[in-house]
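The authors assume throughout that readers already know how a fold can be written as discrete tokens. For illustration, here is how one protein appears when written out as sequence plus structure tokens.
>
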Amino acid sequence: MFSRTEFALGSAIPSGDLVDFSPDDIAIDRVELPWQMTRVERLGFLHLLKTFQPEIALEVGTDKGGSLQAMMQHAKGAISIDINSANQTVLQKMPCFANVEFVAGDSATVLPELVQIINTNGLPVSFILVDGDHSAAGAHRDIEAVLKIVPRQPTCLIMHDSFMPTVRQAILNINWQANPHVHYIETDYVHGSFLPMDAQRFKMVGGLAVALLKPEPRNGALQLYQSHQYAFQAMLPFASNK
């Protein structure tokens, strides 16, 4: 048997990566696009994608296309929203995004309109990533908007940077109880990071919050889980981005 010390020092862990994130695994056409998630966030994200196998995925905040590229490994189609039309112009020329509908514009304007189209036409959106505006007001607005989508099958809602104080504030200020389709909410499905900015300043970033929505109304009250609440509270006084 391994001793406690061996486990603590990691000597019992095989060398190298336990999960291979090579282009063959997460990239399309053997080109991996920039993806602003840590390796553990990617693992959790890919696990959820493989579990839900969405007919249509929705992404708010595309940036360079890394998470969208991962989505298109498992989704038949996707809708991508980003305020930067220049990035989308580059991405939409790639064959791997042939089944992606790119929507350029401020999510404050285009997302409510898109949600109305989704509901009116009964589009089977079952995987949603909110990773756009990271201000408390902006993140709150985007989450509120996507929660107006009427789920037609079990739907996974992921909110990136849930360990960032502004985004976490937005998540906690949502009235999750008021939505009868929300059956589960966890702010720390994947823990975030505490990054040194300089000798005295640190930044709280990353993390995946996850909500599960179902067509049928839930029975009873909803519990909001915060698995790393104490770690968040302990680090908050030292954060430069609170």
Summary: DSSP finds nine helices and ten strands in the chain. The beta strands are 56-60, 77-82, 100-104, 125-130, 155-160, 182-190, 193-196, 202-205, 208-213, 224-225. The longest helix spans residues 107-121.
